[in-house]
Inverse folding.
């Protein structure tokens, strides 16, 4: 779930014009609510840390 949450957060942090379709799709399917509910059921945690890898 942490990966899903990180992806959602990155979409919401991105340019609104470029991510409008993804936002609409996520919101129409209650994306963040689904993550919150799954976490409340104890399925996993939404906590994450993004790490930059220079290569």
């Amino acid at each position: 779930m942490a990966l899903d949450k990180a992806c959602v957060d990155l979409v919401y942090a991105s340019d609104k014009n470029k991510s409008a379709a993804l936002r609409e799709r996520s919101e129409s399917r209650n994306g963040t609510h689904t993550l919150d509910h799954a976490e409340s059921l104890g399925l996993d945690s939404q906590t994450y840390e993004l790490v930059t890898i220079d290569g």
